[in-house]
Amino acid sequence: MSAAMSEISAAARLRAALRDAAACRRPVQAIGAVNAMAARVAVEAGFGALWVSGLEVSAAYGLADENLLCSRDLADVVTSLRRVTDLPVIVDVDNAAGTGASAARFGFDLQAAGAAAVCLEDSRYPKCNSFSEHRAQAMTETEAVCEQIKELKAAAPGLLLIARTETLICGGGMDDALARATSYEAAGADAVLLHSKDTTGNQALEVGRRWSGVPLVTVPTAFPHLDRRLLGEAGFALAIYANQLTRAALAAMHRAAAGFRVTGVFEACQLADVQDLMRVGDPDARACL
Length: 289
Known about the structure:
With 289 residues, the chain is α/β, with parallel strands linked by helices. Helix content is 47%, strand content 12%. The chain has eleven helices and eight strands. Helix 5 runs parallel beside helix 6 (142-155) and helix 6 (142-155) packs parallel to helix 7.
């Protein structure tokens, strides 16, 4: 199968999965995967898609989450994931550097790398993380985002485009958030995401009650108590668990390193087998440890 056919197939499979998820009220679950090891874990755990998180990739590169990644940084991650799985890969392009031309380049490069979808947000360049307290997120104009959507879609017609609004993150009202989402749908977005940091989950549930357009996406980082059943009943077709595997890995590394400083040894019960590590790149590998 050619690369172009593979890209179209991944996007088509994701599109069909979102349609089925909306119909049966059981959202597709995507998990953040910053490398092939995380992708292997995701496959074994039964996730339906992978998410290339701007925060995770930035952290892996030792960079702040503020528009310091280029399209090639993200494309390299997509390539590594596709070496080990054919799960659809959704890429977080943040605000795609804030212009129509830069959005087109992100779309072209990521489609060529084999991504199935991208998520474009309406934060103002340079962005900051949605959960930051040291800086405040700012919004760009609706018309400018609509132009980015159009140019990205024109440059990468094989990609699904998820349009994400930060209105609720920035303290805006639900009516304004829904109005932006409606504008992005009209500009060509295939799905919409109204991001929320409301830890009660009430904002997310209201979004589900009030939205009636293209498939609805959520990132339940702030409201993990809303499980798959509740999110599906609320109307979400896709739930993205954006950074949990990296956070779990970081916590485990902290524990293993701290334990070593105390005991002088790494406990085998804290470590994956050497064979597990070898099998990320070679499923048939065998090891004596």
